[in-house]
Amino acid sequence: MIENKSISRFGIVREPDRRERLRGALWGMFIGDALAMPVHWYYDVTSLQRDFGTVRDYQSPREFHPSSIMSLASTGSAGRGCQEGEVVGSIILHGKKQLWAQPNRHYHYGLRAGDNTLNLLCVRVLLRTMNSTGRYDSGDFLREYIAFMTTPNSHNETYAESYHRDFFANYSRGLSPDQCAGAESHDTASIGGLMTLPPVIFAALRETDQAAVDRKLLAHLRLTHRSAKLERYALALGRLLPRLLSEPGSQVGSLACSVAESLGFAAARLVEQMNRQRRSDTHVIGGLISPACYIEHSFPAVLYLAARYPEDFEAALVANTNVGGDNCHRGALLGALLGAALGYGAIPERWIRGLRSHAELEEEFEPFIARFAFAAERNAQGNVQ
Fold first, then answer.
1. Which CATH number do you get for residue 143?
2. Residue 141 confidence (pLDDT)
3. Distance (Å) of CA 153 to CA 83, 89, 105, 163, 171
């Protein structure tokens, strides 16, 4: 087990090295997702508080979800629609289709405290693929993604968001895997589409210039999403994450605000206002911007939280969880950003050990770190600006 510390033997707090930052980013993703999982897509904060209180540690989901609209979702393609389609039940999520028809069924029915949701399980598929080959390859990822999603009992998740359903609707019609990504819609241009990008970005830091990193992350995103809107935010992530690996941890707030400003979101002003007035984060997330998955709201929400809690990994993820909405995917991205900036030592050890797949995750993270930390160290301070 890696020691969860960033203090030297002289008792002096030090900047984490590249391996600790990369380790922090990976653990941060899975922690942010698992912490929010039981209250994922709760849009009524009063209901969230009633059912779970203030969430500070992993909990299991309840069977009844007051905001669930899974019974309105299409089982044959993206978005809402009838549930006559067999993508859910026959191609993916075997044996789960009947749960979709039940009103107010929790999206993550069957998961337990410390479990991760489907998109983070796909991150694990990517990590295992990259560990086995020593490189990122889109064909390798697609092959393993399809195998994972179509194999019965490969996971216990109940829900798959729209882009998965679109992909496998196209796959079932005989399209080549590299042509199965669905077209952009209101719910596929969502923050969930960014979940597998951090490992690709870390690996791409072997490249000699930012343009090469951009090409690789966009090529990966296009395997599952055809969304010009989403690409704008993916590129912003591809510039921010390498900076966080190299800059002093104290710069995370200013870096997050700078990216937010470039996207037209006044994060610095809002953070100053919220701190001065001591107002709840729900005034921003749920008030000024939507807590939902839509990327033009969810990505700025992540940057706002990173800027408001720049030196406190725990406070940031607790705040993200308890404002509800698409807090799993926001939490995963927020965990990656703050983990990269502050390092592994900033993460509460109870959250690391409390993940149900803790041992397996460590076995998957460490080979990846050993192989790709040098690439990040060599290039994060160079051409990636």
1. 1.10.4080.10
2. 98
3. 22, 12, 20, 21, 20
